[in-house]
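User: Predict structure, ligand flavin-adenine dinucleotide.
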Amino acid sequence: MDVSIALFTADLRLRDNPVLRGALDAARRVVPLFVVDQGVAEAGFVVPNRAAFLADALAQLDEGLRERGGRLVVRHGDAVAETARVAAETGAGEVHLAAGVSAFANRREQRLRAALERDGRALRVHDAVLTVVPPGALVPADRDHFAVFTPYFRRWDRERVRDPLPVPRSVPVPEVRSEPLPTGASLAKGTPSPGLPRGGEARGRRRLSAWTGRHLDDYHTAADDLAADATSRLSPFLHFGCLSPTDVLYQARRRGGPGADDFVRQLAWRDFHHQVLAARPAAGHRDYRPRNDRWRHDQAAFDAWRAGRTGYPVVDAAMRQLRHEGWMHGRARLLVASFLTKTLYLDWRAGARHFLDLLVDGDMANNQLNWQWAAGTGTDTRPGRVLNPLTQARRFDAAGDYVRRWVPELAGIRGRAVHQPWRLPEAERPDYPPPLVDLADGARRFHAARDRA
Ligand code: FAD
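Assistant: Predicted complex:
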């Protein structure tokens, strides 16, 4: 075959990319194509933080392709129509694409297959590009997906995984029109968070090797320490596919040890949520396990949570970190989500939407299903537990440094007193809101609602 197309989606990388490898193996020349899809924008999914990271990722992908004699071809419009058009313009016989998991990706795949087949072309879909193990590859005896993580992990951990594919030496690209690379500002209106990380494969690889060298061995003891900030921060690179999860897994397993074991387990959570969403696409917006919740409406409480002004310092620190960096520590995500859905008893969908508006790694599978996990409507096997932000703060921010970093009003309070500023003598109390809710009242309200259900 003379020409094939590698249609990039959430796999914006050259290393370990079966889509690019497949297209290169099939033809003499390859069109590395990215379509800035109107549909994604119309679905409200393109926000300034992810747009900026995406623009970085595309720029680095283009750079990498140029170093190998090619370049990235960019089009705007409907991904299906534009891909079919590029195929017609270049006479491509095949389009290679990563299998997706969301309802949106499935529809795109079906429409693309139909459009290409009408013109006598083929769609080749590659599994295990966005996840280590493809959704649906592991199933229990009695159902179409795993609903509980531990048995899933036992199977997942035993799966044979390919060695990462090398970066192709050269990528010959035919003559074809390309639009300019998008910028963050051209993709989404609004200002990104000031502390947003930069995207791209080269930056992801640097982060992976620096973090692995410095922190992986201690991951099992340091990951939950909010102030230590010792987790990998690889989530946005994995979300956009600047790094391959298979490659990240490979690197961790090669190093080995208890830190690597715990880290590998986290990577499995990512696959786990993807296989739940693939089997139950509605779980992106509907309760996975309905509990007949009649969520409260309390705009003032929701606004206080969003603004990081609940009066609970560790919650507020986390919410301000999210706004500032477009990212939040994983342990903190769990406790602010529990606070919103259980202590305040507000709908998880509102919290998840706020996260998606800001998170640079914001992702249908991981975000929505982690929110459901925290709300007790998802796959948590202990859906009734309520995380107490004070206990959590004492355990995971023992010295109070995380709070002091993100809540400047409290920066002058020494030690763990920072977690309960309302207990300071009145004269020493900072200009900071009192607690929005009594924790015991909040927990009682939640349990009463769930018991009624
Ligand atoms: P590390 O601790 O270094 O873990 C390594 C990788 O494992 C992560 O990059 C991530 O890809 C994966 N991982 C870790 N924990 C989880 C988990 N619980 N579920 C799925 N994958 C996991 N993650 C997202 O990628 N996108 C989201 O939109 C997202 N929303 C979340 C919302 C809530 C309410 C909660 C509780 C968690 C959410 N997570 C999400 C999962 C997790 O918090 C982040 O992936 C992690 O904190 C990212 O930081 P890291 O890369 O330093 O993680």
